[in-house]
Amino acid sequence: MRQKIFNFRINAYLSIAVALVLLIFLHWVGVLKPIEDILIYAIKPVEKLTYRLGLDIFVNQNTLTKEQLDTENAELNDKLSDALIENARLRSLVTKSETLQKELDFLNQKSYNAISTQIIGKPSDTTAQIYLLDKGEKDGVKVGLPVIYLDGILVGKIVGVENSVAQLLLINDSQSAVGAQIQNEASSPGIIVGKLGLALEMQFIPQTETVAKGQIVVTSGLEENIPPGLVIGQIDEVSNKTEELFQTATIESPVPLERLDVLSIIIP
Amino acid sequence: MLRNSALLLTILILDIIQASFINLAGENVAYLNILIIFLVFLVFYLETVPMLWFAFLTGAITELFSFYPFGIVTAIVVTSAIFLSFLFKNFLTNRSLYTFLLLTAAGTIIYNLLIFISSYILYWFEDAGISIVSGNKFWIGLLWQLIINVIVALVLFLIARIITRRFSIIKTK
């Protein structure tokens, strides 16, 4: 009588292990790709509906009280006044920067297009600020492309692409780093880094540069695929310690990064 | 056949709800991980072999929504299921509410620890897309997830008990 080498339970565990290895192998050689694409294609409309439902429910729950609205209104009025003053000052800078702008235009010969995309979900196995978008490789999306909201406000970059979905890393994630410059007289350079999904900070601003609250920060265009001039935010606070080599500034994004919906991916 | 199809559809629906609804909720609701509670239901409801295969399918479908390299999440889900099954069969004596809640807590801890360990391993293999959670944030998040998962598991268990008599106290040994 033939003896069993392993008992029933160990056979089951071995079968699962073999199935797992096979699953990974079939994925990497591309055999599972049609099945994955079909599943994602079937799921995407449901994900969009579910996301919209969640947005309606959870955004409605986050309504402000009257007192909070009054406070926010007062703050916005102050910001509007500051923005008008800044606008006037920037107009005077336009003339000085025209020559520089022409040089930049000459360097940026390739024009870019933008495709609209929508957030459909968020992986639950990571605490990173990563969202799933409904456009993928077949739509021309590649890793490293910038993602904007409204009129050119940078909200993140593409960090992963499948055939019909992509992964967006928000600009306020700790893994995010974007080359930027401040719209001041010196066009002070720096790096915008995320702080645990809660805030933005501009680092490596030279000590010799004059940086002030309210100045607008834009992309520097030094990174591949990210054009210059995309708005990142406004300086909220400046940290200028003489014992340190560089200044840092806290940046406030003009959009609520945790409540994004329809976005645009810039295709170079 | 009908039961298997229903379970498969349930896995798909739960994954969609988790990725597109729960994970995007504000404040502490986003800590809820409904897939762990589903794993506990599998351990309670199914025998070992079908439970393992459905855990495998749960992991495989969750891969579609995952940021990790393909296979990691499936391995973590299956390992968590094996651990829960071991705990259930060897240390817990009945299918009571307390057993269910204990398994939910244990499943939450083991799942999150495996994710934590995987993120470190992948980080050291220079997978630039993986971020390591800093100490305090991980433990605070785990605590919140424990609380939320146990509360939701309690509610779901009571609902399941009303619907079916399978969750009455039955000795497993």
Biggest interface and which pair forms it? A-B, 47 and 48 residues
CATH architecture of the largest domain in chain A: Beta Barrel
The coarse silhouette of chain B is: globular
Structural class of chain A: alpha+beta
Give the overall shape of chain A, derived from the CA principal axes: elongated
Total number of β-strand segments of chain A?
A: 12
Provide the succession of SSEs of chain B: HHHHHH
- How far is the N terminus from the C terminus of chain B? 29 Å
Function (chain A): Involved in formation and maintenance of cell shape.
Family (chain A): Belongs to the MreC family.
Pfam families (chain A): MreC (PF04085)
Protein name (chain A): Cell shape-determining protein MreC
SSE diagram, text form:
The complex is a heterodimer of chains A (268) and B (173).
Chain A (H helix, E strand, L loop, with lengths): L7 H22 L3 H29 L4 H42 L5 E9 L8 E4 L12 E4 L3 E9 L4 E5 L6 E6 L6 E7 L3 E8 L9 E4 L11 E9 L6 E7 L9 E6 L1
Antiparallel strand pairs in A: 1-2, 1-12, 2-5, 3-4, 3-12, 4-5, 6-7, 6-9, 7-8, 8-11, 9-10, 10-11
Chain B lengths: L1 H21 L11 H12 L2 H15 L9 H20 L5 H28 L10 H29 L10
Helix pairs in contact in B: 1-3, 2-3, 2-4, 2-5, 3-4, 4-5, 5-6
Organism (chain A): Candidatus Kerfeldbacteria bacterium CG_4_10_14_0_8_um_filter_42_10
InterPro entries (chain A): Cell/Rod_1 (IPR042177), Cell/Rod_MreC_2 (IPR042175), MreC (IPR007221), MreC_beta-barrel_core (IPR055342)
GO cellular component, one term (chain A): plasma membrane
